[in-house]
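Submission sheet (multi-component)
Chains listed below:
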Amino acid sequence: MARRAYVRVVAEFSEEGRITPLTVEWEDGRKFRVDKLLDVRLAPATKAGGQGMRYTVRIGGRETYLFEDEGRWFVEARA
Amino acid sequence: MRTVLHSDLNNFYASVECVYEPSLRKVPLAVCGDPEARHGIVLAKNELAKATGVKTGEAIWQARQKCPGLKILPPDFKKYLRFARMMRGIYADYTDFIEPFGLDEAWLDVSSCHESGERIADELRRRAKEELGLTVSVGVSFNKIFAKLGSDMKKPDATTVISPENYREKVWPLPVEDLLYVGPATKRKLWLRGIRTIGELANCDIQLLRGALGKNGEMLWNFARGNDCSPVLPEGEAAMVKSVGNSTTAPRDLENDRDVYLVLLVLCESVAERLREQSLRGDVVSVSVRDCELNTRSFQRKLPRPTALSAEIAMHARELFRERWYWEKPIRSLGVCVSGLSSQTEGVQLSMFPEANARRYELEGAIDEIRRRFGHGSISRASLLADQRINCINPREDHVIHPVGWRG
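Outcome: structure written.
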Protein backbone atom coordinates (compact mmCIF):
# COMPACT_ATOMS: atom_id res chain seq x y z
CA MET A 1 0.00 0.00 0.00
CA ALA A 2 1.35 3.40 -0.95
CA ARG A 3 0.84 6.75 0.74
CA ARG A 4 0.92 10.36 -0.37
CA ALA A 5 4.22 11.92 0.65
CA TYR A 6 4.09 15.68 0.36
CA VAL A 7 7.27 17.21 -0.98
CA ARG A 8 8.86 20.61 -1.47
CA VAL A 9 9.26 21.50 -5.14
CA VAL A 10 11.20 24.24 -6.91
CA ALA A 11 9.62 24.95 -10.26
CA GLU A 12 9.80 27.33 -13.18
CA PHE A 13 6.67 29.17 -14.32
CA SER A 14 6.74 30.19 -17.97
CA GLU A 15 5.07 33.25 -19.45
CA GLU A 16 2.38 30.98 -20.88
CA GLY A 17 1.65 29.50 -17.48
CA ARG A 18 3.50 26.21 -17.98
CA ILE A 19 5.01 24.81 -14.82
CA THR A 20 8.24 22.82 -14.97
CA PRO A 21 9.40 21.22 -11.72
CA LEU A 22 13.19 21.58 -11.33
CA THR A 23 14.02 20.02 -7.99
CA VAL A 24 12.15 17.90 -5.51
CA GLU A 25 12.97 17.75 -1.81
CA TRP A 26 11.96 14.52 -0.09
CA GLU A 27 10.47 14.42 3.40
CA ASP A 28 13.88 13.45 4.84
CA GLY A 29 15.52 16.52 3.30
CA ARG A 30 17.23 14.79 0.38
CA LYS A 31 17.10 16.88 -2.78
CA PHE A 32 16.83 15.53 -6.32
CA ARG A 33 17.18 17.29 -9.63
CA VAL A 34 14.47 16.65 -12.20
CA ASP A 35 16.35 15.54 -15.32
CA LYS A 36 13.44 15.66 -17.69
CA LEU A 37 9.75 16.41 -17.78
CA LEU A 38 8.10 13.72 -19.91
CA ASP A 39 4.36 14.31 -19.65
CA VAL A 40 1.75 16.48 -17.93
CA ARG A 41 -1.90 15.55 -17.56
CA LEU A 42 -4.77 15.35 -15.11
CA ALA A 43 -4.80 11.94 -13.47
CA PRO A 44 -5.69 10.14 -10.26
CA ALA A 45 -2.91 8.82 -8.04
CA THR A 46 -4.06 5.23 -8.22
CA LYS A 47 -1.62 3.80 -5.69
CA ALA A 48 -1.69 6.36 -2.89
CA GLY A 49 -5.04 7.99 -3.61
CA GLY A 50 -5.64 11.59 -4.61
CA GLN A 51 -5.85 13.35 -7.89
CA GLY A 52 -4.34 16.33 -9.62
CA MET A 53 -2.06 17.45 -12.39
CA ARG A 54 0.31 14.54 -12.88
CA TYR A 55 3.87 15.34 -13.97
CA THR A 56 5.78 12.36 -15.28
CA VAL A 57 9.43 13.15 -14.61
CA ARG A 58 12.80 11.45 -14.88
CA ILE A 59 14.89 11.67 -11.73
CA GLY A 60 18.25 9.88 -11.58
CA GLY A 61 17.37 7.79 -14.61
CA ARG A 62 14.06 6.63 -13.20
CA GLU A 63 10.60 7.67 -14.22
CA THR A 64 8.28 8.78 -11.46
CA TYR A 65 5.08 10.70 -10.98
CA LEU A 66 4.80 14.06 -9.23
CA PHE A 67 1.28 15.23 -8.46
CA GLU A 68 0.15 18.78 -7.95
CA ASP A 69 -3.17 19.02 -6.10
CA GLU A 70 -4.42 22.54 -5.41
CA GLY A 71 -0.93 23.93 -5.03
CA ARG A 72 0.47 21.06 -2.93
CA TRP A 73 2.84 18.54 -4.46
CA PHE A 74 3.09 14.90 -3.56
CA VAL A 75 4.70 11.65 -4.67
CA GLU A 76 3.45 8.12 -4.13
CA ALA A 77 5.68 6.58 -1.49
CA ARG A 78 5.80 3.10 -0.02
CA ALA A 79 3.80 2.99 3.19
CA MET B 1 -32.00 15.60 -35.64
CA ARG B 2 -30.26 16.63 -32.44
CA THR B 3 -27.70 14.58 -30.57
CA VAL B 4 -28.06 15.05 -26.83
CA LEU B 5 -25.96 13.35 -24.17
CA HIS B 6 -26.78 13.03 -20.51
CA SER B 7 -23.77 12.29 -18.38
CA ASP B 8 -24.09 11.07 -14.82
CA LEU B 9 -21.11 10.67 -12.49
CA ASN B 10 -21.71 7.33 -10.74
CA ASN B 11 -22.06 7.42 -6.94
CA PHE B 12 -20.40 10.80 -7.18
CA TYR B 13 -19.52 11.76 -3.59
CA ALA B 14 -18.58 8.22 -2.61
CA SER B 15 -16.49 7.79 -5.75
CA VAL B 16 -14.54 10.98 -5.06
CA GLU B 17 -13.81 9.72 -1.55
CA CYS B 18 -12.53 6.47 -3.05
CA VAL B 19 -10.21 8.38 -5.37
CA TYR B 20 -8.59 9.92 -2.30
CA GLU B 21 -8.55 6.72 -0.30
CA PRO B 22 -8.44 3.71 -2.65
CA SER B 23 -8.76 1.25 0.26
CA LEU B 24 -12.36 2.45 0.69
CA ARG B 25 -13.26 0.61 -2.49
CA LYS B 26 -12.99 -2.62 -0.56
CA VAL B 27 -15.51 -1.69 2.15
CA PRO B 28 -19.15 -0.63 1.95
CA LEU B 29 -19.08 3.16 2.15
CA ALA B 30 -21.69 5.88 2.50
CA VAL B 31 -21.23 9.64 2.53
CA CYS B 32 -23.79 11.00 4.98
CA GLY B 33 -24.95 14.37 6.21
CA ASP B 34 -24.29 15.52 9.74
CA PRO B 35 -26.56 13.70 12.23
CA GLU B 36 -25.88 16.43 14.82
CA ALA B 37 -27.46 19.01 12.52
CA ARG B 38 -30.14 16.41 11.71
CA HIS B 39 -29.01 16.01 8.13
CA GLY B 40 -28.13 12.42 8.95
CA ILE B 41 -29.12 10.78 5.71
CA VAL B 42 -27.21 8.87 3.07
CA LEU B 43 -26.09 11.28 0.34
CA ALA B 44 -24.15 8.74 -1.73
CA LYS B 45 -22.84 5.20 -1.42
CA ASN B 46 -20.34 3.01 -3.21
CA GLU B 47 -21.14 -0.17 -5.14
CA LEU B 48 -20.52 -2.47 -2.14
CA ALA B 49 -22.96 -0.53 0.02
CA LYS B 50 -25.44 -0.47 -2.83
CA ALA B 51 -25.27 -4.26 -3.04
CA THR B 52 -26.47 -4.53 0.56
CA GLY B 53 -29.53 -2.43 -0.26
CA VAL B 54 -28.38 0.91 1.18
CA LYS B 55 -30.31 3.69 -0.55
CA THR B 56 -29.64 7.37 -1.05
CA GLY B 57 -31.91 9.46 1.14
CA GLU B 58 -32.43 6.98 3.93
CA ALA B 59 -31.44 7.66 7.53
CA ILE B 60 -28.05 6.49 8.78
CA TRP B 61 -29.63 4.07 11.26
CA GLN B 62 -31.65 2.43 8.46
CA ALA B 63 -28.54 2.06 6.35
CA ARG B 64 -26.64 0.58 9.30
CA GLN B 65 -29.39 -1.97 9.86
CA LYS B 66 -28.98 -3.24 6.31
CA CYS B 67 -25.23 -3.03 6.39
CA PRO B 68 -23.70 -3.26 9.88
CA GLY B 69 -20.14 -2.78 8.65
CA LEU B 70 -21.00 0.39 6.75
CA LYS B 71 -18.20 2.94 6.80
CA ILE B 72 -19.60 6.46 7.07
CA LEU B 73 -17.86 9.63 5.96
CA PRO B 74 -18.97 13.26 6.23
CA PRO B 75 -19.33 15.10 2.91
CA ASP B 76 -16.52 17.32 1.66
CA PHE B 77 -18.33 19.60 -0.76
CA LYS B 78 -15.27 21.62 -1.63
CA LYS B 79 -13.70 18.50 -3.06
CA TYR B 80 -16.86 17.50 -4.95
CA LEU B 81 -17.19 20.98 -6.45
CA ARG B 82 -13.62 20.73 -7.68
CA PHE B 83 -14.29 17.41 -9.39
CA ALA B 84 -17.54 18.71 -10.87
CA ARG B 85 -15.61 21.67 -12.27
CA MET B 86 -12.94 19.41 -13.78
CA MET B 87 -15.62 17.23 -15.37
CA ARG B 88 -17.24 20.32 -16.82
CA GLY B 89 -13.87 21.23 -18.26
CA ILE B 90 -13.85 17.88 -20.09
CA TYR B 91 -17.39 18.49 -21.43
CA ALA B 92 -16.32 21.91 -22.65
CA ASP B 93 -13.81 20.28 -25.00
CA TYR B 94 -16.79 19.01 -27.03
CA THR B 95 -19.51 21.64 -26.81
CA ASP B 96 -20.53 24.97 -25.31
CA PHE B 97 -24.02 23.66 -24.74
CA ILE B 98 -23.67 22.16 -21.28
CA GLU B 99 -26.61 22.25 -18.92
CA PRO B 100 -25.70 21.09 -15.44
CA PHE B 101 -28.33 19.24 -13.41
CA GLY B 102 -26.95 19.24 -9.91
CA LEU B 103 -23.26 18.67 -9.37
CA ASP B 104 -23.04 15.21 -10.84
CA GLU B 105 -25.22 15.34 -13.94
CA ALA B 106 -25.26 17.38 -17.12
CA TRP B 107 -26.84 17.46 -20.54
CA LEU B 108 -24.64 18.17 -23.54
CA ASP B 109 -25.86 19.06 -27.02
CA VAL B 110 -23.21 17.66 -29.36
CA SER B 111 -25.24 17.99 -32.59
CA SER B 112 -22.60 20.18 -34.21
CA CYS B 113 -19.68 17.83 -33.43
CA HIS B 114 -18.17 15.80 -36.24
CA GLU B 115 -18.08 12.60 -34.25
CA SER B 116 -21.10 10.49 -33.39
CA GLY B 117 -22.80 10.86 -30.02
CA GLU B 118 -21.78 7.36 -29.07
CA ARG B 119 -18.09 8.00 -29.82
CA ILE B 120 -18.15 11.17 -27.73
CA ALA B 121 -19.92 9.34 -24.90
CA ASP B 122 -17.26 6.62 -24.91
CA GLU B 123 -14.55 9.25 -24.90
CA LEU B 124 -16.14 11.06 -21.96
CA ARG B 125 -16.15 7.79 -20.07
CA ARG B 126 -12.53 7.09 -20.89
CA ARG B 127 -11.38 10.57 -19.94
CA ALA B 128 -13.37 10.65 -16.68
CA LYS B 129 -11.62 7.43 -15.71
CA GLU B 130 -8.13 8.38 -16.83
CA GLU B 131 -8.11 12.01 -15.72
CA LEU B 132 -10.33 12.04 -12.64
CA GLY B 133 -10.48 8.41 -11.57
CA LEU B 134 -14.30 8.45 -11.75
CA THR B 135 -16.81 6.54 -13.83
CA VAL B 136 -19.76 8.05 -15.69
CA SER B 137 -22.83 6.61 -17.32
CA VAL B 138 -23.85 8.36 -20.50
CA GLY B 139 -27.17 8.31 -22.31
CA VAL B 140 -27.13 9.25 -25.99
CA SER B 141 -30.37 10.25 -27.65
CA PHE B 142 -32.27 12.77 -29.75
CA ASN B 143 -33.78 14.61 -26.81
CA LYS B 144 -33.00 15.40 -23.18
CA ILE B 145 -35.62 13.14 -21.62
CA PHE B 146 -34.44 9.99 -23.38
CA ALA B 147 -30.80 10.91 -22.87
CA LYS B 148 -31.44 11.08 -19.13
CA LEU B 149 -33.30 7.76 -19.20
CA GLY B 150 -30.37 6.25 -21.08
CA SER B 151 -27.81 7.30 -18.50
CA ASP B 152 -29.93 5.59 -15.83
CA MET B 153 -30.31 2.33 -17.72
CA LYS B 154 -26.82 0.93 -17.39
CA LYS B 155 -24.49 1.77 -14.51
CA PRO B 156 -21.67 2.17 -13.77
CA ASP B 157 -19.39 3.19 -16.63
CA ALA B 158 -21.64 2.54 -19.62
CA THR B 159 -22.98 4.16 -22.77
CA THR B 160 -26.63 3.62 -23.71
CA VAL B 161 -27.96 4.78 -27.06
CA ILE B 162 -31.66 5.48 -27.48
CA SER B 163 -32.44 6.27 -31.10
CA PRO B 164 -35.67 7.01 -32.99
CA GLU B 165 -35.38 3.43 -34.29
CA ASN B 166 -34.96 1.63 -30.98
CA TYR B 167 -36.76 3.73 -28.37
CA ARG B 168 -39.94 1.66 -28.58
CA GLU B 169 -38.04 -1.50 -27.61
CA LYS B 170 -35.74 0.16 -25.09
CA VAL B 171 -37.87 2.79 -23.39
CA TRP B 172 -41.45 1.65 -23.64
CA PRO B 173 -41.14 -1.47 -21.44
CA LEU B 174 -39.70 0.60 -18.56
CA PRO B 175 -41.85 1.43 -15.52
CA VAL B 176 -43.56 4.77 -15.91
CA GLU B 177 -41.86 6.23 -12.82
CA ASP B 178 -38.50 6.05 -14.60
CA LEU B 179 -39.58 9.04 -16.67
CA LEU B 180 -38.39 12.44 -15.43
CA TYR B 181 -41.20 14.22 -13.56
CA VAL B 182 -43.16 11.10 -12.70
CA GLY B 183 -42.96 11.22 -8.91
CA PRO B 184 -44.95 9.13 -6.41
CA ALA B 185 -48.15 11.22 -6.73
CA THR B 186 -48.18 11.15 -10.53
CA LYS B 187 -47.27 7.48 -10.55
CA ARG B 188 -50.28 6.74 -8.34
CA LYS B 189 -52.62 8.64 -10.63
CA LEU B 190 -51.26 6.82 -13.67
CA TRP B 191 -51.47 3.40 -12.01
CA LEU B 192 -55.10 4.07 -11.13
CA ARG B 193 -55.72 4.42 -14.84
CA GLY B 194 -53.87 1.22 -15.66
CA ILE B 195 -50.74 2.97 -16.96
CA ARG B 196 -47.66 1.21 -15.61
CA THR B 197 -45.08 1.48 -18.35
CA ILE B 198 -43.78 4.33 -20.45
CA GLY B 199 -45.17 2.56 -23.52
CA GLU B 200 -48.65 2.47 -22.01
CA LEU B 201 -48.32 6.17 -21.29
CA ALA B 202 -47.24 6.87 -24.87
CA ASN B 203 -50.14 4.91 -26.33
CA CYS B 204 -52.96 6.05 -24.11
CA ASP B 205 -55.59 8.58 -25.04
CA ILE B 206 -54.22 12.06 -24.46
CA GLN B 207 -57.65 13.26 -23.28
CA LEU B 208 -57.46 10.77 -20.43
CA LEU B 209 -54.14 12.25 -19.34
CA ARG B 210 -55.32 15.82 -19.68
CA GLY B 211 -58.25 14.94 -17.44
CA ALA B 212 -56.05 13.24 -14.85
CA LEU B 213 -52.99 15.48 -14.82
CA GLY B 214 -53.90 18.63 -16.77
CA LYS B 215 -51.11 20.28 -18.73
CA ASN B 216 -48.51 18.01 -17.16
CA GLY B 217 -50.33 14.98 -18.56
CA GLU B 218 -49.84 16.28 -22.05
CA MET B 219 -46.20 17.03 -21.34
CA LEU B 220 -45.54 13.49 -20.06
CA TRP B 221 -47.40 11.95 -23.00
CA ASN B 222 -45.10 13.87 -25.34
CA PHE B 223 -42.01 12.86 -23.36
CA ALA B 224 -42.99 9.20 -23.62
CA ARG B 225 -43.29 9.51 -27.41
CA GLY B 226 -39.89 11.16 -27.75
CA ASN B 227 -41.40 14.58 -28.49
CA ASP B 228 -39.27 16.68 -26.22
CA CYS B 229 -37.70 19.63 -27.97
CA SER B 230 -36.49 21.54 -24.95
CA PRO B 231 -33.02 22.85 -25.73
CA VAL B 232 -29.86 22.15 -23.76
CA LEU B 233 -29.30 25.52 -22.18
CA PRO B 234 -25.75 26.69 -21.66
CA GLU B 235 -24.86 27.46 -18.08
CA GLY B 236 -26.06 30.91 -17.12
CA GLU B 237 -29.07 30.68 -19.36
CA ALA B 238 -30.20 27.64 -17.47
CA ALA B 239 -30.25 29.94 -14.50
CA MET B 240 -33.23 31.71 -16.07
CA VAL B 241 -35.29 29.83 -13.57
CA LYS B 242 -38.94 30.28 -12.83
CA SER B 243 -38.42 30.58 -9.11
CA VAL B 244 -35.75 31.13 -6.52
CA GLY B 245 -36.11 29.21 -3.29
CA ASN B 246 -34.29 27.81 -0.31
CA SER B 247 -35.20 25.32 2.32
CA THR B 248 -33.53 23.93 5.37
CA THR B 249 -33.95 21.28 8.00
CA ALA B 250 -33.65 23.11 11.29
CA PRO B 251 -30.99 21.96 13.77
CA ARG B 252 -33.85 21.14 16.18
CA ASP B 253 -37.64 20.82 15.81
CA LEU B 254 -39.33 24.21 15.77
CA GLU B 255 -42.14 24.57 18.24
CA ASN B 256 -43.32 28.15 18.24
CA ASP B 257 -43.85 31.15 15.98
CA ARG B 258 -40.72 32.86 17.16
CA ASP B 259 -38.47 29.94 16.13
CA VAL B 260 -40.19 29.78 12.77
CA TYR B 261 -39.85 33.51 12.15
CA LEU B 262 -36.13 33.31 12.76
CA VAL B 263 -35.64 30.48 10.29
CA LEU B 264 -37.90 32.17 7.76
CA LEU B 265 -35.81 35.30 8.09
CA VAL B 266 -32.60 33.41 7.36
CA LEU B 267 -34.20 31.76 4.32
CA CYS B 268 -35.72 35.00 3.03
CA GLU B 269 -32.37 36.75 3.28
CA SER B 270 -30.76 34.06 1.18
CA VAL B 271 -33.57 34.07 -1.39
CA ALA B 272 -33.54 37.87 -1.66
CA GLU B 273 -29.77 37.90 -2.03
CA ARG B 274 -29.94 35.42 -4.88
CA LEU B 275 -32.75 37.36 -6.56
CA ARG B 276 -30.70 40.54 -6.46
CA GLU B 277 -27.62 38.73 -7.70
CA GLN B 278 -29.52 37.73 -10.84
CA SER B 279 -31.22 41.14 -11.13
CA LEU B 280 -34.59 39.53 -10.57
CA ARG B 281 -37.59 40.20 -8.42
CA GLY B 282 -40.77 38.26 -7.93
CA ASP B 283 -44.35 38.83 -6.90
CA VAL B 284 -45.36 35.42 -5.52
CA VAL B 285 -44.10 34.22 -2.14
CA SER B 286 -44.53 30.58 -1.10
CA VAL B 287 -43.77 28.96 2.21
CA SER B 288 -43.50 25.20 2.59
CA VAL B 289 -43.61 23.49 5.95
CA ARG B 290 -42.73 19.93 6.80
CA ASP B 291 -43.70 18.65 10.22
CA CYS B 292 -41.81 16.15 12.34
CA GLU B 293 -43.77 13.30 10.74
CA LEU B 294 -42.64 14.45 7.32
CA ASN B 295 -46.02 15.73 6.11
CA THR B 296 -45.52 18.73 3.87
CA ARG B 297 -47.84 21.64 3.24
CA SER B 298 -47.25 24.78 1.29
CA PHE B 299 -48.95 28.14 1.08
CA GLN B 300 -48.52 31.01 -1.34
CA ARG B 301 -49.72 34.51 -1.98
CA LYS B 302 -49.41 37.16 -4.65
CA LEU B 303 -47.82 40.44 -3.67
CA PRO B 304 -49.07 43.87 -4.75
CA ARG B 305 -45.73 44.53 -6.47
CA PRO B 306 -42.60 42.51 -7.23
CA THR B 307 -39.76 42.63 -4.75
CA ALA B 308 -36.24 41.42 -4.05
CA LEU B 309 -36.11 42.75 -0.50
CA SER B 310 -35.62 40.26 2.30
CA ALA B 311 -37.61 42.38 4.76
CA GLU B 312 -40.60 42.44 2.45
CA ILE B 313 -40.40 38.74 1.54
CA ALA B 314 -40.01 37.84 5.20
CA MET B 315 -43.03 39.91 6.17
CA HIS B 316 -45.25 38.09 3.68
CA ALA B 317 -43.78 34.70 4.57
CA ARG B 318 -44.50 35.37 8.24
CA GLU B 319 -48.07 36.46 7.57
CA LEU B 320 -48.71 33.44 5.38
CA PHE B 321 -47.40 31.16 8.06
CA ARG B 322 -49.38 32.84 10.83
CA GLU B 323 -52.63 32.68 8.86
CA ARG B 324 -52.33 29.13 7.59
CA TRP B 325 -50.41 27.02 10.09
CA TYR B 326 -52.21 25.73 13.17
CA TRP B 327 -49.38 24.11 15.11
CA GLU B 328 -50.66 20.56 15.23
CA LYS B 329 -47.12 19.23 15.26
CA PRO B 330 -43.59 20.57 15.66
CA ILE B 331 -41.83 21.55 12.45
CA ARG B 332 -38.80 19.82 11.00
CA SER B 333 -38.06 21.85 7.91
CA LEU B 334 -39.10 25.07 6.23
CA GLY B 335 -38.78 26.48 2.75
CA VAL B 336 -39.32 29.87 1.14
CA CYS B 337 -39.67 30.40 -2.57
CA VAL B 338 -40.25 33.48 -4.71
CA SER B 339 -41.74 33.09 -8.18
CA GLY B 340 -43.53 35.27 -10.70
CA LEU B 341 -40.09 36.54 -11.61
CA SER B 342 -39.32 39.59 -13.71
CA SER B 343 -36.16 41.49 -14.42
CA GLN B 344 -35.30 44.40 -12.16
CA THR B 345 -34.88 46.53 -15.26
CA GLU B 346 -38.47 46.00 -16.43
CA GLY B 347 -41.04 48.67 -15.71
CA VAL B 348 -42.87 48.38 -12.45
CA GLN B 349 -45.77 50.03 -10.71
CA LEU B 350 -44.15 52.56 -8.39
CA SER B 351 -44.64 52.47 -4.67
CA MET B 352 -46.30 55.37 -2.88
CA PHE B 353 -43.14 55.60 -0.80
CA PRO B 354 -40.36 55.22 -3.31
CA GLU B 355 -37.68 56.70 -1.10
CA ALA B 356 -38.13 54.24 1.71
CA ASN B 357 -37.92 51.39 -0.75
CA ALA B 358 -34.84 52.72 -2.53
CA ARG B 359 -33.08 53.06 0.82
CA ARG B 360 -33.95 49.49 1.73
CA TYR B 361 -32.47 48.25 -1.55
CA GLU B 362 -29.32 50.24 -0.82
CA LEU B 363 -29.14 48.77 2.64
CA GLU B 364 -29.58 45.17 1.50
CA GLY B 365 -27.19 45.75 -1.40
CA ALA B 366 -24.58 46.93 1.10
CA ILE B 367 -25.13 43.77 3.16
CA ASP B 368 -24.66 41.65 0.02
CA GLU B 369 -21.39 43.42 -0.64
CA ILE B 370 -20.12 42.92 2.92
CA ARG B 371 -21.00 39.23 2.74
CA ARG B 372 -19.36 38.85 -0.62
CA ARG B 373 -16.13 40.36 0.63
CA PHE B 374 -15.96 39.06 4.18
CA GLY B 375 -18.10 35.92 4.21
CA HIS B 376 -21.68 35.10 5.03
CA GLY B 377 -21.27 35.21 8.80
CA SER B 378 -19.60 38.62 8.84
CA ILE B 379 -22.89 40.46 9.25
CA SER B 380 -26.24 39.35 10.55
CA ARG B 381 -29.45 40.64 12.01
CA ALA B 382 -29.51 41.28 15.75
CA SER B 383 -32.75 39.31 16.03
CA LEU B 384 -30.89 36.21 14.85
CA LEU B 385 -28.31 36.48 17.60
CA ALA B 386 -30.92 35.18 20.02
CA ASP B 387 -30.44 31.67 18.69
CA GLN B 388 -26.96 30.87 17.48
CA ARG B 389 -27.89 27.44 16.17
CA ILE B 390 -30.45 28.90 13.83
CA ASN B 391 -28.22 31.78 12.93
CA CYS B 392 -25.49 29.44 11.78
CA ILE B 393 -27.72 28.02 9.03
CA ASN B 394 -26.30 29.24 5.76
CA PRO B 395 -28.89 28.16 3.21
CA ARG B 396 -26.99 29.64 0.35
CA GLU B 397 -23.74 27.79 0.74
CA ASP B 398 -25.19 24.68 2.32
CA HIS B 399 -27.53 24.02 -0.54
CA VAL B 400 -25.64 24.65 -3.73
CA ILE B 401 -25.56 20.94 -4.37
CA HIS B 402 -29.19 20.35 -5.21
CA PRO B 403 -30.34 20.45 -8.80
CA VAL B 404 -32.30 23.52 -9.72
CA GLY B 405 -35.84 22.87 -10.82
CA TRP B 406 -35.83 22.10 -14.47
CA ARG B 407 -38.67 22.21 -16.89
CA GLY B 408 -38.55 21.93 -20.64
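Remark: Chain A touches chain B through twelve residues (CB under 8 Å).
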